[in-house]
Design goal:
- This protein is of the alpha/beta class.
- The protein has 17 helices and 17 strands.
Length: 481
């Protein structure tokens, strides 16, 4: 808690000392996925980046409320205001209810993130579950004079907002220059300006996902959900808003404008943006044929290899995905995890401390304090790996103090902050848990067969207290953590 942490703030375009809104607490909001398809490689980088940020703040002693949303309505196909809702479109193509699509891909996303060893958020709100909050936010923006109703839809009035505030301050755009260099467009529909964006869209008769509102039966605009849900769970002012660089404009720019229009302040102290992944130097996309789902990638490389690969680059820097890069990451990960295993059995004895060894944990922490500099961080971890190998080959002896310093790296910082764990051990633990659950549920089945419902219910209740939910179905008993 006494350490100084620096974060690059996209809003100010410089590194700033982190000073929380509420002492000892961190409020973090991260834009999560739009759940209309399989989780892909592009989902992995922000997930790992903000997971390390959460883990590090907790390591420093902060309480962290980590909110990551699920976009399940309002994200349109062509842009933020026009086209088909991506989830509704997927539902029509597959003859499913939209919420079936949402549930299928939300489960897939959670499973992919679990395998990357990312911690679940404290709260994971869905856009469709906060329609009331979004409608109330629109009312406040209308009352403030920064929105207008047009044919049942509601649009944010960007020129009106820009006259009082600065639309474009986050992304570095100047709306006056943009408007001066844009010719008048015919057929802009219900908008007064091509830069205005939808807060509420009137739904067409065939639109599947729609709700009643004071203006029409329709659905909220994509940008609105984050403003409404971050305010609900983190307050009118909170610490950090994170997301990919591709969200900086228009999504986060519009979100900042909505916050300011409705409450007179931007509401976020630090805007963080991770850079994007490229594939062999090209932007990843289905049209380019270089789109890779995490499920397919996990067939070739372990999730920990992918996590290690992401940590090798600074979150604001470019990261190019290739087989060569992942193969190199695989080798590097093996070296680190082997050192973790070897460390536990290293001989050590009372003696004078080696200042270079004892200073390594501080260097690891300092790198993370400096805007989450994981490449420098990993370099110091490899310094510790070399120490382990020197002790193994007999060229170096450890004092008790040296061993204690290395334990901070290998038993805390590597697994608990960087999130790098031995997947063989993790897999073994999962098999052990599954075996124990099979035994317990067999005892419960036998109790039910004897009509000993007191024992059966007691097992169910005790498992629930331990965080295990069981569900009896016609095909047997299912359980989940």
């Amino acid at each position: 808690m006494t350490r100084t942490v620096y974060i690059y703030n996209t809003l100010s375009r410089r590194k700033e000392e982190f000073v929380p809104v509420h002492p000892g607490m961190v409020g973090l909001y991260v834009c999560g996925p739009t759940v209309y398809g399989e989780p892909h490689l592009g989902h992995a980088r922000p997930a790992v980046t903000y997971d390390v940020l959460v883990r590090f703040f907790r390591y420093l002693g902060y309480k962290v409320r980590y909110v990551r949303n699920i976009t399940d309505v309002g994200h349109l196909e062509h842009d933020a205001d026009e086209g088909d809702d991506k989830i509704a479109k997927k539902a029509r193509l597959e003859s499913l209810e939209p919420m079936e699509v949402v549930q299928t891909y939300t489960i897939a996303y959670h499973d992919a993130m679990r395998r990357l060893n990312t911690l679940p958020p404290s709260i994971e709100p869905r856009a469709s579950g906060h329609i009331i909050e979004q409608i109330e936010l629109i009312k406040r923006i209308l009352d403030a004079g920064f929105a207008y109703v047009s044919n049942g839809s509601v649009y944010f009035d960007v020129p009106a907002y820009n006259r009082k505030y600065h639309y474009g301050v986050l992304s570095g755009r100047d709306i006056d220059d943009m408007m001066a260099n844009t010719r008048s467009l015919d057929g802009t529909g219900d908008k007064r300006s091509p830069y205005d964006f939808a807060l509420w869209k009137k739904a067409s008769p065939q639109h599947i996902m729609k709700w009643p509102s004071p203006w029409s039966e329709g659905f909220p605009g994509w940008h609105l959900e984050c403003s409404a849900m971050s305010e609900k769970y983190l307050g009118e002012e909170f610490d950090i808003h994170g997301g990919g660089m591709d969200l900086q404009f228009p999504h986060h720019e519009c979100e900042l404008a909505q916050n300011t229009a409705s409450r007179g302040q931007g509401g976020v102290k630090y805007w963080m943006h991770n850079n994007l992944l490229t594939v062999n130097g090209q932007k990843m996309g289905k049209s380019l044929g270089n789109f890779t789902t995490l499920a397919d990638l996990y067939k070739v490389y372990s999730p920990m290899t992918i996590r290690f690969f992401i940590l090798q680059a600074h979150y604001r820097g470019t990261l190019d995905f290739s087989n060569d890069a992942l193969s190199a990451a695989e080798k590097g990960l093996k070296r680190v995890l082997q050192a973790v295993r070897d460390f536990r059995n290293l001989p050590h004895a009372p003696g004078s401390r080696n200042e270079e060894i004892c200073g390594l944990p501080e260097k690891v922490v300092e790198a993370l304090c400096d805007d989450l500099n994981t490449p420098i961080d990993m370099a110091h971890v490899f310094d510790a790996v070399r120490v382990v190998n020197q002790v193994k080959d007999g060229s170096l002896k450890l004092s008790d103090a040296d061993y204690e310093a290395l334990s901070e790296i290998f038993l805390k910082l590597v697994p608990d902050v960087l999130g790098l764990v031995d997947e063989v051990s993790a897999s073994s633990e999962e098999k052990t848990v599954e075996g124990l659950m099979d035994m317990i549920l067999e005892v419960r089945r036998e109790a039910k067969a004897r009509k000993d419902f007191a024992t059966s219910d007691s097992i169910r209740d005790r498992l629930k207290d331990l965080g295990v939910t069981i569900k009896d179905t016609k095909d047997g008993t299912e359980w989940s953590l």
